Amino acid sequence: MLDSHVQSDRIAEILEAHIGLEGPLLPILHAIQAEFGHVPESAIPQIAAALTISKAEVHGVISFYHDFRERPAGRHVLKLCRAEACQAAFGNSVAERAKQKLGIDWHETTPDGAVTLEPVFCLGLCACGPAAMVDGRLVGMLTPKSVEKLIDEVEK
Amino acid sequence: MRVWLPLDSFALAMGGEEVARAILAEAKARGVEVTLTRNGSRGMAWLEPLAEVEVNGVRHGFGPMTLADVPGLFGDLAAHPKALGPVEELGWMKGQTRLTFARVGVIDPLSLAEYRAHGGLEGLDKARTMTKAQIVAEVTDSGLRGRGGAGFPTGIKWKTVSEAKADRKYIVCNADEGDSATFADRMLMEGDPFTLIEGMAIAGLACGATKGFVYIRSEYPVAIRVMRAAVDIARAEGVLGKAFDMEIRVGAGAYVCGEETSLLNSLEGKRGIVRAKPPLPALEGFMGKPTVVNNVISLASVPVILAKGAAFYKDFGLGRSRGTIPLQIAGNVKYGGLYETAFGLTLGEIVDRIAGGCFTDRPVKAVQVGGPLGAYFPRALFDTPFGYEEFAAKDGLIGHAGLTLFDDSADMLAMARFAMEFCAIESCGKCTPCRIGSTRGVETLDRLARGDADAIPILTDLCNTMKLGSLCALGGFTPYPVMSALTHFPDDFARAKEAAE
Ligand SMILES: Cc1cc2nc3c(=O)[nH]c(=O)nc-3n(C[C@H](O)[C@H](O)[C@H](O)COP(=O)(O)O)c2cc1C
Ligand code: FES
């Protein structure tokens, strides 16, 4: 667990680095999430003060976007594409198998904290679907079998 | 020995990184000197990762590559099991008219020298000798219409911004590309980023804007990395600088942020809520200043228009759809990928001749054209020529030119439900028809799925309300996939009723 002073110092650095941008809030939130894996609640007043906007406004922005997490995710994040082209390539059966294997539904994390399963609506891999992103790595042409293998690799 | 292996996401998703590493390791083990260029994708997704090896000055293709195919690249190439012959001679490549994508897959995306050697910066050089009005006129005369979906004439948008009086103006590139079945923006940014930078610099000159932003969706890590590196290089080499500079910004997973006013709010650091129009972004856009918002492909088509002239570009196409369009063929497809061609091919030619139908070898039942807000077309409409007006006349749209093929196992009632569900998930929440209508739509389709045919008129009414009353095309166009599914595939809706009885 990060010392709260260390954390607020690091957030102050991030704020300092981005404050000169036109419209700095999204770059700031991305940088904080890249650093801590989520946007800690305690960061909100600090951001609000630096940008002279209300805490409610910062919170509103964080909750509007699917990307920003208010709590840490599992150690690995598996994003499976649910959009039309991947469905046409039988992505639903891949998703069903993944849920079954992990024993969780969308937006959930396995009880051991290993894997968070998230839907994504298109990764731009629509000509080689069903597609996935695992911790930032792209995977195409998944089958129910290969997604099981992928999960085994990730869990290891 | 000169070898190319794409850094494009298609290639990476199919194991390209491992293949690239294996090529270098094999070369080292054999003591062969290899120059490996990480190029963009040629667009033949089914062949990725596609390695290319230079033989007597001609690039020969090998794909789809697996690790086991790597040693063979160092032996008798003609006997390689994945040998395809000269890449430029492949039917898929020869059939295209590559204007916007001329360099994608060909050059090293991050070599400004190669970019120049392949005609890069000719458009910008030309623009620097022209007045603002002349540049705007050239773009207008080319007939270029926005490739982001709405098809608004690019030159007319630029004229408004160019003539607006303000102390600051902006060029914003919409690289949110959220539509399923689209990847042209991604491929262009990964494979030829300088073309987009050049197009934006020309837009800056034409409109008197000194600052540009590219808003790239966060689902595109490779495009973000390549664009950032390209902007740094362009700045170091003086292509960008005091006269016009730009920044890469990253979205945060909201489909609606592809809508231009929502995108501007997001850039400003706000929730991605749609703004009422007027005022037009061209007059009051980013930070309230006159702003051009254009799609990646619209902007990336400008350099070739300036370099070769409006008349050259306009000569391609059909009716009021001028120039070329990068078709993106996806879903249950045998030969999927990017195919740039003049407007005017029929849907049937694209689906049967170019794409080769479904990979399942089953009949094509439906093609969704134009992403999640586009209509489902049955085979009966396959004679529709690919053009803005031609698709509108059939109650469809071409959108960003993505096509998703479905075979006869597809359940169109389920796809109609998904369209409503997607709208409900992604609605920005500002207007009621979209926010509430989509949720009611899901419920209504669930009633239909249980065999309650009385729900059909309710669904039709609901779609009308959404169409007429929504603030933007998210709620306004969701009826396209829903109503086209109901109209063209009534059996899928009746089957539920029969099952219930
Ligand atoms: C819900 C919604 C999503 C959109 N997504 C995109 C997108 O991802 N990329 C894009 O260029 N345009 C998108 N648009 C269209 C934009 O609002 C706008 O028309 C376009 O960026 C203008 O550029 P163009 O004239 O060059 O096409 C979307 C529109 C709506 C209503
Ligand atoms: S639809 Fe799945 S990657 Fe585009």
Question: How would you portray this structure in words?
Answer:
The complex is a heterodimer of chains A (156) and B (501). With 156 residues, chain A is of the alpha+beta class. Chain A has two domains: 4-64; 76-155, Glutaredoxin, CATH 3.40.30.10. Chain A has seven helices and four strands. In chain A, strands 2-1-3-4 form a four-stranded mixed β-sheet. Chain A is elongated and about 50 Å long. Chain B is α/β, with parallel strands linked by helices and 501 residues long. Chain B is 41% helix and 15% strand. Chain B contains 22 helices and 16 strands. In chain B, the strands form four sheets. A five-stranded mixed β-sheet of chain B has the order 2-1-3-4-5, with helices on one face. A five-stranded mixed β-sheet of chain B has the order 13-12-16-14-15. A four-stranded parallel β-sheet of chain B has the order 8-7-6-9, with helices on both faces. Chain B is globular and about 75 Å long. Chains A and B meet through helix 2, helix 4, helix 5 and strand 4 of A and helix 1, strand 8, strand 12, strand 16 and helix 17 of B.
Q: Strands of the largest sheet of chain A, in order across it?
A: 2-1-3-4
Helix content of chain A: 40-55%
Q: What's the CATH class of the largest domain in chain B, please?
A: Alpha Beta
Structural class of chain A: alpha+beta
Amount of helix of chain B: 40-55%
Ligand roster: flavin mononucleotide, FE2/S2 (inorganic) cluster
Q: Which structural category do the helix and sheet elements of chain B fall into? A: alpha/beta
Main β-sheet description of chain A: 4 strands, mixed
Give the H and E element order of chain A: HHHHEHHEEEH
Mean pLDDT of chain B: 97
Number of helices of chain B: 22
Distance between the termini of chain B: 69 Å
Give the amount of beta strand of chain B, in percent: 15-25%
> Biggest interface pair, residues each?
A-B, 43 and 63 residues
CATH topology of the largest domain in chain A: Glutaredoxin
CATH architecture of the largest domain in chain A: 3-Layer(aba) Sandwich
Percentage of β-strand residues of chain A:
5-15%
Annotation field: number of helices of chain A? 7
